[in-house]
Each structure stands twice: as structure tokens, then as C-alpha cells.
Design the sequence.
């Protein structure tokens, strides 16, 4: 294997929009590859031995050893997690069932780099059922569910991933997916752009046979647009991140559920009768407000934009200055909740962040000598003022919905279905249809995807029949 | 007065998007000027004498006779209606109070052509308090509230309007606003474009002194864009119709209230426990569904667009084929509810239209010999099938929210405030700021307007203080 | 006819619980017989001639003249109102259809004294379809819908009632129902006890053939208990007023709808974004709060009982001192809203009463010289303070839901179905089952009734089938 | 210590209402003392060593050894849990603060036997702050939070309890609370009646100095009524179980939150768009339905009682036969969900129990050879039909809200406050006020308690001031 060397080659990747760079200069993997992705990893047993997977010799029950994971023995537990996820991914399962006969991905050799979770496993097994061969690495060094990786390996997938990879491990795993004798990928499914970057830098000739890239993340899409702008993109790419489904559904409907879930799991607080201030009445704020109001909380809003403020009024929310008993943050700006506000909050106030980044709460201002921090549970700190007042800070001000609650599988299933359809589209499209450019998923395909989701929700049987969409492809 | 003649001059007005032209070729006023505008006129006493106002000699209590209305004696009743409206237009009243000192419209001579309703009266009296002189005609031959016109005349406004004008009356009234000795308008407030059209055709030289046009309606805006495209627009114009406030608030929040109001006033139906099918889950449908669900109806949705369908799912609505007990139509397509569906509806099903035009329900298909129509109340028909089944058709399939319920004054107050601010902006803008073009209201001004509305809602006191907007202008 | 004389005979009726007696001593009809019953009469044409119906000679189209009403020519209009009501009374219509064959009331001669409204007409025509003969008078001198009375007369019913009876007319009408040759009633359906009282005093021997009394009102039931206590009740009586259906459904579900309806019809106010104080969080208050919250109002509660207060908290309502923009009263105490509070209310505050009596708002305290009253619409007064502040008082502080909104027919249909079943039960019961006493409707019969209502709501088809109630009787 | 012997003495305890006796005859502790109390114990570290606490010698940091618990070293962790609980028990904390000066329990020697949880710890420390001395044992052999017991021991309380006691341990612990030299209890706080029973049988003379018993559980109250009936109750007892607060709030408001919490923690299911059947529309069902509807589920109801069914209709729920995607059980009957229904459910259907006992789902019928059970997570089983269909069964059909979600501390705080007030009342009452009988908490005291809760909810400040309750005692 060639020595990994790319520090000088990746200028165009340096301009990506990261609010606070927590990486030292010597680190080179993308930021998203190191962010902790809480919930997905929450069922992972932490008591495993400390031998590096790279030093282990493991085989699955059929004798296959073309993988590298933590512990093949966890396969059964992982299979259970996958089965749970399948229940909540009806559209993908229906796609699997429906397209199994025609195998639209027959001949596809997909190399993937995403979070290795139960939901991804359902996607991979669907791709496989549609005819594809897959090799997979993790796009984040912390987020792999080891037992799911085990189940995939047991099922014959070449998976190279474990929870707690080092940076060197990270690139090693990616390389092992790509650099294998007798197998050359013709499709890329990426989340963050690291896999694409790697192939670009190490095996550029591979792109001759690659029919397209499907990219999921903001960061990865940004990288692709830069490549495209620089004239260096040599295959068509599909931007799945900006599809309307993600924007429309992830924020409002996920947050409506995860605000309740996250608060319950961390604090067991009763919602009924609590006074809550939600900072910001955008999509995330709307979801949080709707859920808390429905549970009997008394919800106040702060909002700068008058249009959103008027919407809040018409939905029955009033405005608040000061901090009340339970405090939820949902906006995307920096330092919305500053020390001064927290100084004025009442004893017992819970402060948490449902925003987009980790900078909404000025946590740094709480790290001063006169305040005492007490860790009372995992993800829960009491910050204690000199007069004894306690503020309950969740997840140290990081995103509650990623740190302390699960992302509903159902929502992920929309994304996964979109990815599968994007792969099918790129793989089967006539050569002329897509140029060497970044494409938004065509509205028609998004509709197809959502239509498919609706038809398979249980509630949507009528929907399908009404519209008369008999054949999907 | 010159004879009215313009048949040959108005080609560019013929392309406006009217779905079904119900006018004979000899008619020349805009379509919107003849549509019945139900609720606004609902309190008008119909027992007036039949003498044409043009043949009457009337003076107000101060001896002023520069107006032409139905009956000056109704002024007191009209004043009451205006006072009721003032209660629901806090932003406009606050603007009146706040800007009274600086009189930003001092010197403005505004000629207006809008629905003459209590809400318009509040606008006119505000413009007057800000320093403007006003002359006003009706933009619709049916919609004038005679008693409000009387109150305006009594208050010294030169109003030329009454309910039930002929087409000749219509143009005569407009002409009387414009063509008056010793008074030349410098601002136009129009709704439908007929006033603008009239000045264009009859007194084009007036535009030399006119600083701008504020236009409210789809039709009028369309006309302005055509003029602009043809290079014939000679003053700046402000398109108030497409402002975000209208799109965002009118549909969702108005319909949420008017669906309940319209159904109650026509049928006294109990909502709790009723099964309702709402056709279409756009903004209007969302408002209808939310209201009916909250009142305990069991709501089903039909929807073609999968994105909206998925939103409906996530909000807890399921899909239906067939017609259930109470039927609400909200989409904007033609013939959504066809005869076949109505043949399959249950006895007693109520069918009504909350859409954008009057073509959603195929009413024509019900005008067949085998079906009997019975008018059971104003705006309520029973259509009776041969087997005795009755369908309850509201407003003969026309828009329920215009025909059978009032438009909440509060929502109109947002539009009226926007109009007032647009007039102030155009009147006071440095010459260079606006060219001879059609402008969308600047986002900043919209925000100002909405901010002002929120601050004066009662609920928004905190909002104003939080944001620190101390001075508005 | 004997001269009417009963001043000395009615001691036991004098103790009935009337909060404020507004009747002179010379008046002798029950209080409920003079209270205005707003909505029911709202469609009555007031332009009729002034001849007393007692002086008119009228026949229906079949030559029958055994009735006394305002104007037989209004029959068609009345028929329409009855048809509208039928749509909302599915349980009663189903009972009519189902029991038509077996005619469980064959031979019954029912004399009735209730409000003569479209809903009553549906009940009477059902009783007739089940085999009964009916003669009917009004229980209230104002509440008769003349056109409905006309339709009943046209249909062959002996109805004696019109809107605006004098007291002498009132008793004359009742007497004409009872005192007719060749017809002797064997069942009584009463609302208020006046009919029962009349027979008791004038024709006591009639009770020998009477099988039972069904009584609807609080007052009437009170009178019956007094008779029973005094040992003077000589037939079984059924107390329909205290049935669980009335207590459980009327308050919560009716008020949830009528608070919105009443406010819209009187003030056209927009609910979204309004601040509302609801005084009292009992069943009525719960209904009002739920509806206003759902429409986007910001709702505050005042409440004395801590249990209800805690329920309000858990439902997300907070407590308020002072009067906010829109003010709703729902409690049953005297003088909840006193002058002092109204002095502190903001300009434009709407004050209305959803309580049980008419004493919740201290209206008397507003009838002072420094305050000006302006009647701005029917049922709407502006009370103006010296500084110009206006309070909007609805229905002069009387019950909004009776004065300014309709009672949903559907809810009345539950009562009417209960009455019909009570009549059937009393008429067909074995002699020994009911003694000379007042009976609550047996729980089993209430269940039957409600079950029947649910099964015929459209939504309840499954309900019926699930429970396997195949035969109803 | 005398040998424990009571098999012959406890006849009157044998009649207590246990639905299914799962105990062998040789067991003698009350049923409630062995039921697993899931959530309370969920944070207990299970990795402790296996030495019996009775064999350990432990001292707290001040040298005190008068306790017997699992591990004094867990005190810090326990203190954190107590601090978390304090945040949600504002009424109790306010009572502690307010009554600290007057020490209404000065001289009280309370022996208690309840679940040893963080909430109980807050109660005990409050009693201590009010002047009482306490000795405490666990009322359930599984429910003790060891770390909380440690914190209490570290704080100087004589606690005798650990998770996983044997039956002998159980009685030994109780005995150690009572049978101590130089200390004789004068108040009893019991949950289940085992403590009371023990004193009765072993140390009857102690009752001479005991001022009263406060009992929390159904079982314990039942025992007290039996004693009272038999004339054997020799002190006054307060029945806290049947207080209105418990009945009114626990079911509706707790279940509204715990249905969501329990489903999320076990299955991570997304609620939006799911079809749910809730069996039974009593208080529990109402809470479940409200929560699920608010989260966007499509909710169907089954219900036998027509009154509840009509309420469901008016709230917008329809009825369902068959099993849809997500299935929730809430009724209190046996075998509501039978095998036949489960045979007809769709693949992936989740079945859980929110009822009152553990018999609603016929789990026994699923333990047949043709069905395969797979444990996929703690408390989550997949039951697999021969055709591959999976039903997801939660908590093996036991109560979801006890097994898989936490009981909100806030609700427990109402009970704890009631207990404290009951102790104060009994301890301070004039001798004549309470006889040797079982008393319901006086309505006035319940109101006081709830009032106190409301005033300290954060949202209730206004409430307190409005009502003018300045002094509480």
C-alpha cells in the first residue's frame, strides 16, 4: 500500500464552511468524520477488548474473512437491530421486494462510506437484493454500531469499520474498500466526501469506470460543487442533501418528536404545566413548540424575524424576555443564550440546544471559577451558582437531538430510499442524460420517492390506489 | 365629460388570466369589479328606495355635497361598523396615532379605487390623519357597504360608490374621483387596475404629477407588468399582492377560521364527530384540516402531490376515496369534485368550495333534469337525487370564504397597513429610488409592516421591547 | 272553557330555583316560558301582519283547521328548516325508520309542550311515524319558529303556538291541546312543567288514563320532585334532564363550538393571536379554552378550585389577573366580572358570558352616567369610558351560546332521541315497572340511546358492528 | 430477636384483592412488595459485588453505622439523583422551606416503609427538615435505588434496604426500623401495609404511642379497612390512595407522557403518520389518544361503553376493527387483545399494554410451538409467525408505563406532598379530631395540597396571589 499523503493536494477542500475548527492542522479527515453521532452508537457494548480490529483475524460462519470489524460474535445482536430498523423502513423494504425480480442494480459495484448503523444496513441489504455488490467503510470514526457491522460481515458484506477508529484507521478502512484486487467500483455512495476525495487523490483512474456519485452531506456536496467549478469533476454527481424531502421533513417532524424524547431520556421532566421558552420559530422551533404545547407546556417564543413572529402569534404563542423554567434553544445563530440570560434564569431551569450547530448556547461563559459543574447523569450537568441556583445543562450545549435522542428511523428511511433511487437512476441512465456535473435529484424522482414512502406507510394504501400509480419504474 | 370609449384601446388588458369569462364583449370593466363580494355587504339594508344615487341631491351635516352615495342618513350605522373594524386593526390605528405628528403624507392627493368597506374606511381615515387628501370610488359594483360610504361622506370624504352600480355608474364614479376641478391626484391606490386604466386612457397627462401606484390585486398587478413590458408604465408601481404577508397569512390563517365560520353560518352543523374529506393539502387545505381536526372532526385528505401527501401523513391525516358526510374542497384545479363522486356521496353530505376559483366543483353537472334543486336557505341548496338522497351544496359551489363568512378584519388590516406604508414609501422616496417599473414591496418594508402588526397585537408588547425597535420611521 | 284561575293553587311551584325573578306577581307562567331563546327564533320573518292568530281562520291544503299558528303560508319555508335539521339528527331518523314497522307508539296520544323548532318537528314527526297522535303547544312565548309551526300544521299536526304569544295566549294554546272533544292524552312530553301543571289544576281526572310524563327541564323536574315529595304525583315521570348524556356532552362539546360561533357572528374577530382570559375551568371553561387554543388564541385562565386549576396547568394554560384583549366568562357564580376589572381592561376588550345564568358579569355596574353605551350591532354594545376606552359587551352579558349562536342540532338530537325512547319505555312498560315516582332514565336506556347515536353518526358504523348489537329493541 | 412467625396470624390479610396470585403459599410478604417496579430501579448499577449487605460493615463519612444498604460508596451518585428529583418536586421543596422555621414535625418519630427512590428521599429529607426523625425500610424487594439509599445513609438516615432482598431480608429490614433501643416510633408511613402488619403482630404495644398511620397503596388501605371493620384498628389512619389528586391526575396526565416515552425508549418508532388502535377510551385511553394524535399518529379507538365511545367521536377518533400498524392497549379488562386479533395484525405491529393489570394482552396464547420469540432488546420481543410476520411485543405484555418509562417525578411529588401534609395533620391534630378509623384526606387538605402544588409550579405565581392565600398553615 502506498503511503498516505495528501496534505498538499487538498486546497479546494479547505474552504468548506466550518464554524469552529476543532481540528489540528495535522488532521486531514473531514470534520463530519469526527463529530460524535450519539444515538446511533448508544447500544454499542463498550466492554469489548482493546485489541485493534486491524490486528485480529476474524471469519464469518461461512469462512469469509474479507472484512474488518470489532467482533464478529456480535452479529446476532446486530441482526436484531437491523430487524427493528426494517420495521420502520417500509418504503425501502417495498423497493427491495418490488425490484428484486428485475434487479436494476445488477452489475453495480458500489463502494460506500456512510455511518454504519442499522438503517444503513437495511440500505446495503436492499442494494444487494437489487443486484449490487457493496464494499463499505464508515464516514465517522465514532458512529459505527459494532454489532451492526458484525451482522453485515456475517451476511457476507465487506465492511471495514468500528467504533473508535484512529485517523489512520479511518483512511485505511476506506482504502481497503477501494483498493482490492479483482474488484473495481462503478458507483460511489458518499457521506462527507472523504471517500470521493480518497479515490480522487489515490486512484483517479478509477473514475473511468465510475458511473456516478451520490452524496448525502452538506460538506460533501460543497466539495463536489468546488470540484465542478474547478472543472475537475469527471463523473455526474447527485446531490441528495438539498432534496426537498430533507429540508421539509427532517427539521419539522423529527424535531417535534426528538425534543420530547431527548428531554425525557435526560431529565425525566414532566412536560405538562412547564413554562418553556423556545428561541427561534423557524422549522425546528415550530416542531419543538408544537410538541411541547401538545404535551401541556406553556410555550413562549423569542424571534427576530417579524414574519416568523407573526406566525408564532397566529399559532397562539406569546413572546418572552426572561428565562422561565424549561429552556429550549432552536435557532441557528451564535450565542443566543448568553451568560447574562443564564444569570437571570430561575433555579432548576433546563437549558438545551436543538439548533443547527453547537454555538447557540455560550457554554464557554459558564466555565468560570465561581460556577460549579456537577455531572449528574450522562449528558446532564448541573451548573451551580454561588447562591445555590442550579441550571441543568444538557449535552454540554451540543445538539440535543443528536446527542440524547434517536433520529427516527422512519425519517432516515426517506433519505435511504432517495439514495437507493439515485443510485438506480445514475446507474441506468442513458449516457447522455447526466454530464460531469452536480445534479439535484429531479423533482419527478423526489416525488416518486415520496410517493413510494407514502404508499408504504400503512396509512397510504388508499393514496396509491387513488393516484393510480400502478407501476413504479 | 367626454363619452366613454375605449374598446379599441385596451388590447393589452385582454390577456389577463380569467378562467371563465362570464362577461359579454360589450362589458369593459374588469372581472373582479363584478364578482359578488358577499360578506362585506351582508349588513347592508336592502330596503332602500330605488332612486339612483346619481339623481339624488344629498349633503352631509356640514353642508358638503362632494360625494355620491346611496343614503347619507345611514352614516351613524356606518360609523358603528367602522368602530368595530378599528378594534381589529390595531397596527393601522397605531400607525395613525404615531405618524399623526409628522404627517408623512402631507400634501398627498390620493385617488383610490377599492372595495368600500369598513376596513377601507379605517385605511382612508388613517391616510387622512397622516396628511393626505382622498377621493375614492368602488372597485366592484356589488361590494360597497352603503352605510360605510355614508359615514365616510359624513366625515368629509369625497366618496362615489354604492351597492349595485351599473357599468356606466362604475366608470362615472371613477371619473368623478379624478376629473374634478382644482384637484389633481399625485398618488393612486388601486385594486383591480380599473382606476389606473381609466387615467391612462382618459387623462394620461395626469401621470406627470403622479408619484406612484399601489396595486393590490392579481389582475391589477398583471396589467401593470404588461404595461411595464410594453414600456408604457410611466410611474413607479408597488405590487402589494405578492408580498410575503399575503401569501403566508391569508391562506393558512384566514381559512382556518373561515371554514368553521362559513359552515356554521350556512348549516349550523356540529363539527365534532363528523367525517370530512378535504381535497388538497396546500396552505388552504392545511388551514381547513387543522381547524376541523381541532373541533373534533375526523378528517381525510386527497392530494396529488406526494410531498404534501407526506406532510398530511405526518400531521395524522389519512387518505380517502369516497365521499363521506361532510365534504370540503380546497384545491385550485378545475373539476376536482365531479358528478361521479357526487353520485356516490352519502345522503346529507355537504359540499363546499374553499379553493381559489369557482370551478373546483362541477356544478354544471348537477343542473340536469333528474336532479331537483331546493333552495333551503340563502346560499344553501339541497340537490336531490331520484332516490331521495340529498347533497347540501353551499354557495352554489362558489368560494365559501367569500360568500358565506367574513374575512377576518385583522388579516385585512395587515394588507391595509402594507398599503399605507407603500403609499408613504412611494410618496417620500428620493426621486432616484424607484424607476418606472413594478416593484415588490422591499423585504425590509414588509418586515417593518409585520413588525408593526405584531407589536400592536396586544400579545406583542414584549416583542417590540425585546427587539429594541424604538423608532419606527 | 273555565276561567283560568290558579293563583291560590300553585304554592308548591313557587319554590323553584330562579335566581332573579323578573316577573311581576301577576304573571304566572314559568320563568323558562318567557326567557328569550335566541337562535331558535332567528330565522323567523318579523314582517308578518299583526293580527292575532287566535282571530284568524286558517286551513291547511287538506282542509284541516285543527291548529292555531301565525301563517300557514310559511309551511314550505318551515319544511326546508325541518329538512336541514333532519340531516343532523341521524339517530332519530334511524329510529324512525327502524321502528316504523312495529309502531311501538301505536295508540299513544301524546300531548306536548316544548320549544317549537325544527328539531322538535323532527321529533314530532318521528313520534307520529312510530304510531303516536300528537297535539302540541309551545313552552316559551318567544321561541316558536312560525314557519316550522306552519309546516307541522300543513303536515296534519295540531299545533297551537306562535312567536310572541301573550300570557293569556300561552295558557289558551296549552288548553287547546288538552281540552278537545273525543281525544284524551295518555302521554305527556313537557319542558318546564307548565303543561303538567295545567292538567293537574284543570283536568286532574285526565291522569287516570295517562301512562307517564317525560320532562326535560331543570324547572320541570324540580316541580315533579316536589309533587312526588308531597305525595301528589299520580303517574310515573321520567327525568330526562339529569341524564348523563346531557351533563357530559352539552357543556363541553357544545360550548367548544358555540364560543367560536358566537364570537364570530357578533364581532367577526380573528381568533389567531388574541389574548383571552377564560374565567373558570369547569366543563364549559374547558370547552372554551380548547377551542380558542386550537384557533391560535393565547388563553389564560382564572379558577378558584385548585383541582381544576391544576388541570388547567397540565393542559398548558397559565393564570392571569388582569383583563386582556378578549374576555370570556364561563363560570356559574355571580359577579365574577366586576366593574373594577372592567375599569382596568384594555381598549377594545370583548366581554361575554358562557356561564349558566346571566349574573356572571356585573352589567348593572356599567349602567352609570359616566359610561356611554352604543349599540353597534344586534347583541353588540360598545360601552365607552370617559377617556374613550371601549369595552365590547356581547348580548348585554346574557348567555352568548343561547343569544348569539345556534345550539348544534346534533346535540339536541341526542336529547330528542332520549325523549322518544323515554316515551316508548313508559308507554310499553309493564304496569308494575314504574310507580308514581320520578325516575332517572335507566343507565341501560341511556347507553342504548347513545349507542344508537354513535351507530348513526356515520363514523360509527364499525362501532355498531363490533359490538354486535344487531337488534335494538 | 424473636423468630419471625406469622402464618397463623394473618387471616385478615388473605382476602386482599389480588387478580392472580403468583406467590407460593409459603411466601408471606404482600404482593406489592415483590412486583418489579421497573423505572425506579433502572439506573442502579448491576455490577455490584454479591456479598449480602447484612454481612457488611459500613459506616458513613461521619462514622454512623445505623443503616444497612448495598454500598455506601454510591452516595455521591445517589445525591445527584436526589438533586434531579428536587427540581421536579417544587411543592415539597417549598413546603420544606416554608415550614422549616416552625418545625411542625418536631418530636415526630416516623417509621416508614415505601419504595426507596430519589423521590422518597426528597420526602424523607423534607420530613427531617420539618423536625422529624426517620427510620426507613423498603416496601418492595426489587425497587430500591441502591445509590439513593447510600445517599440517605450518608446523610444520616437509618435506612435498611437494597435492591434484591430475600423475603427474610425484607422482614429483617422492617424489624430493624422498629425494634431499636431508645427509639420508639410515633408515626407510621406505609405503602402496602407490611410495616403496619409487622408492628401489629410483633410489637402491638407500640401503638400506644403512635399517633397515626398514613397509607398510600390500594392493598394497604384495604387491609386497614378490614382491621377497622374487625374493630382492631387502634390508631387513626389516613387513606392517601383514594384522594382525588391521584385519581384525577395520575391516569390522564401521566399516561399522556409515558405512552410516548415508553414507545420511544423501546422501539424508537416515529409517531407521525402511524396508525394506532387504542383499546378503551377511559382516562388512560384519553391520555394515550391525545398524545399520539398530537404527534401526528392516526388514532382509532375501540370501546364498549357508548358514553366513552361518543366522547371519542366528538374528539375526532373513529372506530376500528382490525389491527393496524401500532397497537396500544389501555383498558382494564382481561384478554382484550386475543390471539385471533394478533393473528390478523399486520407485519410489524407493535403491541403494548397501558392498562391497569397485566392481563389485557393474552400473552399466554403466544407461547405456542408454531410461534418463534426473539428478544431484540431489553423489554422488546419479536413474535414471529410461520409466514414470517413479526409482532413486536413490549414488556411481555406487562404495563408499559411501569416497565419501560419513568413515572414523572412531578406527579409523584403531588403524592409525596399529600403524604407530608397528612403526617403533619395527624401529628398535630387535637386528640378528639380523629378516632380509631380510616379517614379520607379531607377535601380541604387536598385542596390545600393541590393549591400548594399549583403555586409552586412556576406557572402558578399569579394563581397564589389571585386567591389571596397568604398563609398556608
Sequence:
Amino acid at each position: 500500500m502506498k503511503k498516505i499523503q495528501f496534505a498538499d493536494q487538498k486546497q479546494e477542500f479547505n474552504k468548506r464552511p466550518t464554524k469552529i475548527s476543532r481540528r489540528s492542522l495535522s488532521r486531514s479527515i473531514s470534520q463530519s468524520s469526527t463529530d460524535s453521532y450519539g444515538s446511533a452508537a448508544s447500544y454499542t457494548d463498550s466492554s469489548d477488548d482493546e485489541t485493534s480490529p486491524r490486528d485480529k483475524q476474524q471469519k464469518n460462519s461461512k469462512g469469509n474473512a474479507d472484512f474488518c470489524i470489532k467482533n464478529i460474535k456480535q452479529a446476532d445482536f446486530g441482526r436484531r437491530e437491523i430487524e427493528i430498523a426494517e420495521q420502520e423502513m417500509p418504503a425501502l423494504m417495498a423497493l427491495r421486494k418490488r425490484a428484486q425480480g428485475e434487479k436494476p442494480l445488477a452489475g453495480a459495484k458500489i463502494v460506500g462510506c456512510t455511518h454504519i448503523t442499522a438503517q444503513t444496513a437495511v440500505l446495503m441489504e436492499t442494494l444487494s437484493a437489487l443486484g449490487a455488490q457493496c464494499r463499505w467503510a464508515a464516514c465517522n470514526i465514532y458512529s459505527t454500531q459494532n454489532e451492526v457491522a458484525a451482522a453485515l460481515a456475517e451476511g457476507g458484506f465487506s465492511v471495514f469499520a468500528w467504533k473508535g477508529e484512529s485517523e489512520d484507521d479511518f483512511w485505511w478502512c476506506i482504502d481497503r474498500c477501494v483498493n482490492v484486487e479483482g474488484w473495481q467500483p462503478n458507483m460511489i455512495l458518499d457521506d462527507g466526501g472523504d471517500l470521493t476525495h480518497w479515490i480522487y487523490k489515490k486512484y483517479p483512474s478509477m473514475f473511468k469506470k465510475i458511473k456516478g456519485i451520490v452524496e448525502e452531506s452538506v460538506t460533501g456536496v460543497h466539495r463536489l460543487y468546488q470540484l465542478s467549478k474547478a472543472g475537475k469533476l469527471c463523473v455526474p454527481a447527485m446531490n441528495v442533501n438539498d432534496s426537498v424531502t430533507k429540508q421539509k421533513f427532517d427539521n419539522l417532524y423529527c424535531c417535534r418528536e426528538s425534543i420530547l424524547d431527548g428531554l425525557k431520556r435526560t431529565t425525566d421532566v414532566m412536560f405538562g404545566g412547564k413554562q418553556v421558552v423556545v428561541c427561534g420559530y423557524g422549522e425546528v422551533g415550530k416542531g419543538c413548540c408544537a410538541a411541547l404545547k401538545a404535551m401541556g407546556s406553556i410555550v413562549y417564543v423569542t424571534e427576530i424575524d417579524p414574519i416568523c413572529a407573526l406566525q408564532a402569534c397566529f399559532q397562539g404563542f406569546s413572546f418572552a424576555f426572561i428565562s422561565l423554567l424549561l429552556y429550549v434553544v432552536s435557532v441557528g445563530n451564535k450565542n443566543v443564550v448568553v451568560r447574562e440570560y443564564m444569570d437571570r434564569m430561575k433555579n432548576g431551569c433546563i437549558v438545551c440546544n436543538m439548533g443547527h450547530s453547537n454555538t447557540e448556547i455560550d457554554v464557554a461563559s459558564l466555565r468560570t471559577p465561581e460556577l460549579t459543574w456537577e455531572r449528574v447523569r450522562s449528558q446532564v450537568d448541573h451548573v451551580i451558582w454561588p447562591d445555590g441556583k442550579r441550571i441543568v445543562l444538557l449535552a454540554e450545549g451540543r445538539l440535543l437531538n443528536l446527542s440524547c435522542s434517536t433520529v427516527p428511523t422512519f425519517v432516515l428511511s426517506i433519505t435511504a430510499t432517495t439514495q437507493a433511487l439515485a443510485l438506480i437512476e445514475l446507474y441506468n441512465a442513458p449516457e447522455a442524460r447526466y454530464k460531469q456535473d452536480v445534479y439535484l435529484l429531479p423533482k419527478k424522482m423526489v416525488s416518486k420517492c415520496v410517493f413510494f414512502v407514502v404508499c408504504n406507510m400503512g396509512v397510504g394504501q388508499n393514496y396509491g390506489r387513488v393516484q393510480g400509480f400502478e407501476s413504479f419504474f
In short: Chain B touches chain C through 51 residues (CB under 8 Å). Confidence is low (pLDDT under 50) at residues 1-27, 36-47, 465-473 of chain B. Residues 109 and 443 of chain B are 26 Å apart (CA to CA). The first helix of chain B runs from residue 75 to 87.
